[in-house]
Amino acid sequence: MSRPTPVTTGRYAPPAPVRELTATSADGAPVHVEVHGPEGAPAVVLAHGWTCSTAFWAAQIRELAADHRVIAYDQRGHGRSPASPACSTDALADDLEAVLNATLAPGERAVVAGHSMGGMTVMAASTRPAFREHAAAVLLCSTGSARLVPESTVLPLRPGRVRTWITGHILGSRAPLGPVTPAARRILKYATMGPDSAPDMVEACARIVHACPRTVRHAWSHVLATLDLDAAVRELNVPVQIVAGTADRLTPPVHARALADALPDCRGLTELPGVGHMTPVEAPDLVTTRIRDLVTAHVSAQQPPVPAEESA
C-alpha cells in the first residue's frame, strides 16, 4: 500500500528547499536535512515530533524563509531519514548534533524549535557540545519531559493504572493506520487536535502521520512511554519559550507548566485555549511569531554589522 503524500496546495504544502543534504549521525545513521531561505540570514533549526516529518513545519518554513535560513530535518525513521535499530533519546540528541554541525558554521548561533518528540530531542541534547555551541534560544511546542502515558488524556477515564495501561497499548499499537479516510481524520482530530481545527489542518496532519511506517511508530512509542528527561531540562541553559494547547490530549498543559518551573531560563509559557497537540499547524502564526521574536532577541542582535563596503 502506498503511503499518503503531503498536501500540495495552501499554507500547509511543503515548499521546495533551496538545497538538501545528508548529515551523518554518531552511529553512522543518515539524517535527511532541508535548507530554506537565503544564505547568511539568521538561522532557525526545526525538529518535528513523533510520526511527523519536515512537512509538519510547512507553514513556518513558508513565512520564515523570506528572511531566515530555515533548517528542517527528518528524525530517524521519519520522512526521508531511514529507520535505524537505535531508538533512544541519545540517538535523537546525536542526530540533532549532526544536523547542527553539518549546517552551521563554527560558532554560528540559531534558534532551535522542537515540537513534541522534537522538543524532547532538544532536552536530550541540552548538555551536548554542538548544542551548547550553536543554540542561542529554544522554542518548545506541545512537549513534555516524563510521564507521557500516565498524563495523557486521550482516553476519557479517571487517571490511574487502568487508563495508563490502555493508553500505552493504544499509543504503542502495531496496527497500520491505513488510508486517510473520513473516519481516520475524525480519529486523528480527536486524539491530536483541538475541536475547532479547520479541515485543511486536519487533512495536512492526517497525511503526514499516516505516512509514518507503523514499525517506526511502534518503535518510538516505547521510547516515549519510558521517557525521563527531567534532569536534562535543568541543563537547558538558554532562553526558552513554551507554547502549549489547553486541549492537548497527548501532552496536556501539566507538562508545559512543569517545564516552565524546571527550566533555568524560561522566558514565558503561552497556553492556547482550545488548541490541541499540533500547535505549529493549529496556531501557525503564533508559533512563527514566537520563533521570529527569539531570533530578533537572541540571534540577530548578536550578529556583527555588515561592513560598509559589503553593504554598498
Describe the protein's architecture and organization:
The chain is of the alpha/beta class. The chain contains 14 helices and eight strands. It has helices at residues 58-64, 89-103, 117-124, 129-134, 148-151, 161-171, 182-192, 199-210, 214-225, 230-233, 253-262, 279-282, 284-298, 308-311; strands at residues 19-24, 30-36, 43-47, 69-73, 110-115, 135-141, 240-245, 266-272. Strands 1-2-4-3-5-6-7-8 form an eight-stranded mixed β-sheet, sandwiched between helices. Helix 1 crosses helix 13 and helix 2 (89-103) crosses helix 3. The longest helix has 15 residues, at 89-103. The radius of gyration is 18 Å and the shape is globular. The termini are far apart. It comes from Streptomyces cellulosae. Residues 44-287 form the AB hydrolase-1 domain. This is Alpha/beta fold hydrolase. It holds the Pfam family Abhydrolase_6.
Brief account:
With 312 residues, this protein is α/β, with parallel strands linked by helices. Helix content is 39%, strand content 16%.
- Count of DSSP H/I helices: 14
Number of strands: 8
Main β-sheet: number of strands, strand sense, barrel status? 8 strands, mixed
Portion of residues within helices: 25-40%
Helix/strand-derived class? Answer: alpha/beta
Shape: globular
N-end to C-end Cα span: 56 Å
Overall mean confidence score, pLDDT: 94
Q: Summarize the helix and strand pattern as letters.
A: EEEHEHEHHEHHHHHHEHEHHH
Radius of gyration: 18 Å
Reading side by side through the largest sheet, how are the strands ordered? Answer: 1-2-4-3-5-6-7-8
Low-confidence stretches: 305-312
Instruction: Give the percentage of residues in beta strands.
Output: 15-25%
